[in-house]
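Hi team, as promised in this morning's meeting, here are the two structures we talked about. I've kept the exact order from the run log so nobody has to guess. The first one is mostly here for context; it's the second one we should focus on when we meet again. Sequence first, then the predicted structure tokens.
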Amino acid sequence: MSHLCVFHSSNTRQPTKLLNHHEDIARELAAIGVAFERREPAPSVTAETPVDQVLTACQGEIGRLRELHGYVLADVFRQDESQPQKVRDAQRAALLAERTGEAQAWLLVAGRGLFHLRVDEQVYALMCEKGDLLALPAGIRHWFDAGERPRITAIRLRADENDMADGKTGDDPASQYPAFDDY
């Protein structure tokens, strides 16, 4: 089940708010300009579905999001235990680095992932699952964690063709807040 914990920067381990209902989560995130929707993923897509088939199966949703938000690039993000540990560790470290950049969306088609969004003195920790769509506006500070034993397949849509590594803030708040494996 998707859930949202809201933390104040003065207490990074105890949330001030915990939401479990999709409508409540969407309303809370909309207040900071973030869209959160429940989408019906293509039934043929699993964590093992080849990347090209994931894109083909989700082409309708990708087209809708491109038209609605102006995204120019769509790719498949996958982390699972079939990847060598060294690769998973490097990916995780890169994604835990706080960044800001162009508008982007993540549509989870298999598995789960934890997104942290930092706005002023608040951090929003959003556990997403299959069928969740998270659309981030340009400029929002965020980081991502799928845990030490990840199992996630998601479609990433971006408004900029540049590498997502651009926009690192240089801050390291990820170690101060609960990680994926803490939930």
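And here is the second protein, the one for discussion:
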Amino acid sequence: MSASLVLVVAMAENGVIGAAGAMPWHIPSDLKRFKALTVGKPVIMGRKTWEAIGRPLVDRDNIVVTRQAGFSPQGAIIAGDIDHALIMAQALAEGRGCREIAVIGGGEIYAQTIGKASRIAMTIVHGQIAGDTAFPEADPSLWQEVSREACPRGEKDSHATSFVVMERRGAAART
């Protein structure tokens, strides 16, 4: 049985996920949720996301998609394209006995995988935030909201959020 693909994303109400190579907000409470959603799983990210994080994510198989020749950071598995990343992630998920592969950004990687995903775990950052990278639009005819939880702004958080889970309508997509 193949692992399903979940997109894990934090985005502003206007769809922005990044600005100048970073997240344009500071929400420590959401980072805890991100960790809970991804730990123990293969995670797929683009090179810019890897560079923004700056290190391998602990207790996860870090797969970085890049076309940049010679890019080989310590603690990452390199894939030349999304198809190879998905093949590697499936093998790693099978080896770990886990049922999900997490896609964690950025914009290009989300755009290449939204059609293959069965679930989107999104944190909606309340506000219209300026940025240069956006999450692809989730077609409402293909996706349905299955849960929503309002999350008040924590003491150290720059914004209040809502945690929303969307599932693909009908048969689940597989990688």
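Starting points for discussion:
The two ends are 11 Å apart (CA to CA).
The first strand starts at residue 4 and ends at 12.
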